[in-house]
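Re: the 306-residue chain
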Amino acid sequence: MPDTRPLDGKALLVTGAGGGIGRAIAIEAAKAGAMVVVNDLGATLDGHRTSSAAAEATVSEIEAAGGRAVTNGDDVSRPEGAQAMVRAATDAFGRLDAVVNNAGILRDCFFHKMTSEDFDAVIKVHLYGAFNVSRAAADVMRQQNSGSLIHMTSTSGLVGNLAQANYSAAKLGVTALSKSIALDLARWNIRSNCIAPFAWSRMTSSIKVDSPEQEARVNRMKEMLPEKIAPLTLYLASDIGCETTGQIFAVRNNEIFLMSQSRPTRSVHHSPGWDFNSIANYAIPALRESYHALDISADVFAWDPI
């Protein structure tokens, strides 16, 4: 008989849960029995604070369905904000079993036009945010001798994308952070994994439509609902997922991918040692066959979502 409440008694913190993927995860987690801290500071897409109305709406929906949830409006980019949201979980529920690092902003532009402020703001929310919240949660989870940290990454970082140097750098950094957390905290039964979600949300709604091909791509993305990201997230948060750690997944509608991690693909050896000419004449010609193309996420995931 299927388990309809695999998170019964668990306390989850979901950042950026006022809308989109975070909201869907928070609502589905509550249906699965979890008590949820719904964090959202009510920021615009580029990170400017507005109101907490979105987080409150998510909490109201959870409570209307008979679940338990509390609102938190702290900023993931600030260590004290992360500590406050973790305290919100322990104060309300007495524990913290899983964190979903989902909060994010975008400030897209081509690299030669990107300002230091635009780069810094995106890194602060995505990479610093994942560190800050995970670091604050780790102290509680170590005392419990258990926990799950789930970080939203992106194929913009894993593969590449145009006009997203800040976002791509942050999201690839999140995968390295997750692997380090998985290694360092394994002794306390704390696991750490990443999900690269494909879903139509506030983040993807900013994609520019300037060609028929781009319009077709956006229309395909609109078919990928945020709710599709929730099942894998809940699995990774559950006790049943306790043996999965240090992995990178992607979810694209009804497809789940286990993504590769950097490993050597080809090598060359030269007994006398390498100099400029031997590299030019032997090493690079031998290695060139395994070069990666200058592709973007849409080139790699080129088929229609199933």
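The beta strands are 11-15, 35-39, 68-72, 98-101, 147-152, 190-198, 248-252, 255-258.
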